[in-house]
């Protein structure tokens, strides 16, 4: 996707990619938009955010299905007719569920399986003896006072399960998502939670000191340039209210990078409520891969 170098948005990133930008803006006014979701995402991931507005109608499913009612929608696969599939290698939700068995890499490849017994169904709620696995209920109990987490953001929300679990606990979560070889935005919306279509290179679209909770699992990891991670952490601090919680969930890095990332996290000014470091062993111990899971709190008093 050309995202090895990400340019923080300052109104200048879009013109850096004139060919992609010209292709994106070549469309018939008042007509149908090009079917160009991969192009749009390529621009987003390069820091061209927000995308320029267009005066055209995007492609939609030819025979769209009505959404399922709540609460049934939370844990039911949506009808295939709810998605325009042209940008994805899978053309049905059954295909997306089955690709969890594939040896090839796909972003969040098992998180479309929300059926009984799946890992996604157990995530954040099943008991675990791994100290890296915080539960939603334990995090909510850490709020001061208990019950003060009401609204929040999930950065890189996958298929929306974190937002769904929070909805079941009367907490409203909006989730950022990209559609990297899967209809993540459509899937979230079909489940009845709110997808926010933006990448980590954009300033969070919330006012200062407003959110009770920000959560991120895997998206904030060592694939992000360190300077951009630094900007992102300060932006999370900005949008949290005093006393708000930042749940850094399974931050991935390689052991020699510990000395690089810990000071970046520490300098922002969060109070550490929980801090767990452990090995990531799914690809073998010889790679020296690591995780940090942390529950951090914005101070109640100004840090400046």
UniProtKB/TrEMBL annotation:
Residues 153-247 form the Methyltransferase type domain. InterPro entries: Methyltransf_11, Prob_Methyltransferase, SAM-dependent_MTases_sf. It comes from the Eukaryota. Pfam families: Methyltransf_11 (PF08241). SUPFAM superfamilies: S-adenosyl-L-methionine-dependent methyltransferases. GO terms for molecular function: S-adenosylmethionine-dependent methyltransferase activity. PANTHER family: METHYLTRANSFERASE TYPE 11 DOMAIN-CONTAINING PROTEIN, S-ADENOSYL-L-METHIONINE-DEPENDENT METHYLTRANSFERASE SUPERFAMILY PROTEIN-RELATED. This is Methyltransferase type 11 domain-containing protein. It comes from Musa troglodytarum.
């Amino acid at each position: 996707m050309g995202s090895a170098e990400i340019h923080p948005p300052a109104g200048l990133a879009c013109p850096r990619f004139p060919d992609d930008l010209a292709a994106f803006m070549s469309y018939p006014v008042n007509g149908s938009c090009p079917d160009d979701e991969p192009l749009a995402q390529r621009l987003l991931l390069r820091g061209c955010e927000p995308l320029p507005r267009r005066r055209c109608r995007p492609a939609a499913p030819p025979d769209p299905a009505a959404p399922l009612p709540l609460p049934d929608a939370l844990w039911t696969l949506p009808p295939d007719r709810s998605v325009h599939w042209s940008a994805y290698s899978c053309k049905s939700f059954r295909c997306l569920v089955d690709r969890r068995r594939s040896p090839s890499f796909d972003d969040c490849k098992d998180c479309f399986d929300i059926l009984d017994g799946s890992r996604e169904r157990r995530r954040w709620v099943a008991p675990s003896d791994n100290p890296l696995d915080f539960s939603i209920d334990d995090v909510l109990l850490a709020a001061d006072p208990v019950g003060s987490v009401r609204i929040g953001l999930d950065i890189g929300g996958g298929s929306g399960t974190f937002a769904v679990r929070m909805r079941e606990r009367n907490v409203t979560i909006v989730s950022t998502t990209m559609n990297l070889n899967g209809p993540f935005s459509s899937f979230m919306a079909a489940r009845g939670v709110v997808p926010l279509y933006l990448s980590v290179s954009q300033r969070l679209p919330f006012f200062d000191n407003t959110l009770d909770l920000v959560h991120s699992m895997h998206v904030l990891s060592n694939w992000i340039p360190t300077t951009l991670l630094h900007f992102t952490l300060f932006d999370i601090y900005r949008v949290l209210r005093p006393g708000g919680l930042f749940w850094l969930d399974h931050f991935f890095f390689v052991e020699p990078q510990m000395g690089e990332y810990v000071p970046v996290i520490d300098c922002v000014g969060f109070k550490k409520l929980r801090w767990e470091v452990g090995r990531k062993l799914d690809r073998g111990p010889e790679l020296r891969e690591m995780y940090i899971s942390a529950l951090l709190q914005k101070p109640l008093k100004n840090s400046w």
